[in-house]
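Here is one chain, start to finish.
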Amino acid sequence: AEGDGNPPRGAGRGCRLTRAAQELLLFDLDHTLLDGDSDVEWLRFLIDEGAGDRGSEEAANADMARRYREGTVGTLDFVRFYLRTLAAHPMERLLEWRARYLRRSILPRISDSARTLIADHQRDGSLVVIVTATNRFPTELTAGALGVEHLIATEPEIRDGRFTGEYAGTPSFR
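Its structure:
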């Protein structure tokens, strides 16, 4: 009977329940959806483009990647290390490089299974978000290539149409 603490008669049989909230799925980008690390690949790409000294930058990149894996690098050291690569060049050149970086360094590292996984979840109505410690500049095209509208990444600071090498807001890190 109503009010006796029991479910109404017939509840649970033939009743259609609706989902009150959309399922939220957070995917890490590096070494999850992407076979590799987008920060490491970005700096390698820049080195290949002649935008940095191969010897010193490759060693520094390998050291930073090692320290990140080991959990021994500080957030701001990590963020600023990779943001400096943006501050050193004009926006127009960076935009050209970024398009080539996506085609040459990133798209070949995204597996069909990663694409299918994301598409299946989106088809099921889930809200898919990519979360990465890599800054937004090199990763927003990657998210777009995966069909993911929402990206949580470190925001690089821009002043007068140029990257400053600093971050805006709170870095996205571990």
